[in-house]
Amino acid sequence: MRFGVNYTPSVGWFHHWLDFDLDAVHRDFASIRSLGADHVRVFPVWSIFQPNRTLIRPQALADLSSMVDAAAEHGLDVSVDALQGHLSSFDFLPSWLTSWHRANLFTDPIARSGQASYLQELAASLAEKKNVLGLSLGNEFSQFASVEHPDVQAVSVQQAECWLAEMMAALEAGFPGAQHCHAEYDSAFFDPQHPFTPAGTARHGSMSTVHSWVFNQTAQRYGGMSEESLRLAEYLTELARAWATDPLRPIWLQEIGAPAPHVSPENAAEFTRKALRNAMDCEGLWGVTWWCSHDVDRALADFPELEYDLGLFRTDQSLKAQGEAFRQVAAEPQSRPARRTTSLVLEMGDETSGPGRAQCAPGGEFFESWMALAKAGARPGIVLASQRDATDYLQVRGIEQLIESGDTQALSR
């Protein structure tokens, strides 16, 4: 299993692309490698790399190339996110898509053609790099389609599927055969109004991705060190597995962190150890990528408070307690997780649009049922209702017992 970090530069945060300093990148990567990490996820800022629809800046591509080469010198593989898009509560859209030029990111033909051109050229620029794993479309890019976004981009489930297919094809055209994926946050699994669905998450790209954040009402409802919080990444990984048509599809825990105050600083190291070990007990987990490498410099203004101290390192490269915990877990001997022979059946309704997703959110009936089984030691998996009688599928996954989520007697045994 792979262990890595989401790379947050110690100098200048992601604004470092404006004043790219390769020496600073080398210092950061040396620290990251000292954790036992084997990969980083990096984030070109879209508005800097493609400031005009027909201009993809050669210097920006050269800086990214230098970063990838620096990672190789430190023994690190790289996954590159493309449409940034969105980072730590800030949006970065190029001016050719805003104000007087405003266009729907997901449905406007010109906007889509510009995105596809950028994705293909960015991917092609990396195709000869031996340590590049592949590209993600962007960091939680679908948040632009959330009804909670202040400038929501309206899109239907069908239109979202078309956008995903088109953008994934652009990555594949630029860099054939690489590990391309798209990075969804948990609204895809929990919010029945969200046009990006679990089906899209689990059926586009080379692997499914999971972003596990306990500030999603898990810590608020149950406590930051509750079993529900410590098992959230495990639960999301099993949800992603249930939605995949291929029972052997790999899953990437692409983001997990210990956000204060939801997880107190004195508990951050223990949270790191326990949450990671729980997630590692899932079959098919390709890897874990912690958010994030370095704290955000407090000289930078207006971040949500929890974003400043998520790093495994401080900005001066000193290692924090959760960084040491990450290093300990990464160094532990690994063995293949045992089969999860018991699975909880998820009745979703239409499995394309996922109208029943709310039951999977913290406090929902299905969430509560799964956690009850987990706390009782059952190591539950999840199976969609449509697969309830799929003998071959169940056999591949090693499932011997199915429990209906409303079967309170079975859940209590």
Sheet having the most strands: 8 strands, parallel
What is the H/E order? EHEHHEEEHEHEHHEHHHEHEHEHEHEH
**What distance lies between the first and last C-alpha atoms, to the nearest angstrom?**
33 Å
Number of helices: 15
Tell me roughly what share of residues is in helical segments.
25-40%
User: How many separate domains make up the residues?
Assistant: 2
Question: Reading side by side through the largest sheet, how are the strands ordered?
Answer: 7-6-3-2-1-10-9-8
User: What structural category do the secondary elements indicate?
Assistant: alpha/beta
Mean pLDDT comes to: 96
Q: Which residues form runs of ≥5 with pLDDT under 50?
A: none
Q: How would you name the CATH homologous superfamily of the largest domain?
A: Glycosidases
Radius of gyration: 21 Å
Quantity of strands, as a count = 13
Strand residues, percent: 5-15%
- Quaternary structure classification: single chain
Shape: globular
Query: Can you identify the CATH class of the largest domain?
Result: Alpha Beta
CATH topology of the largest domain: TIM Barrel
CATH architecture designation of the largest domain: Alpha-Beta Barrel
Organism: Psychromicrobium lacuslunae
Protein name: Glycosyl hydrolase
Keywords: Hydrolase
InterPro entries: GH
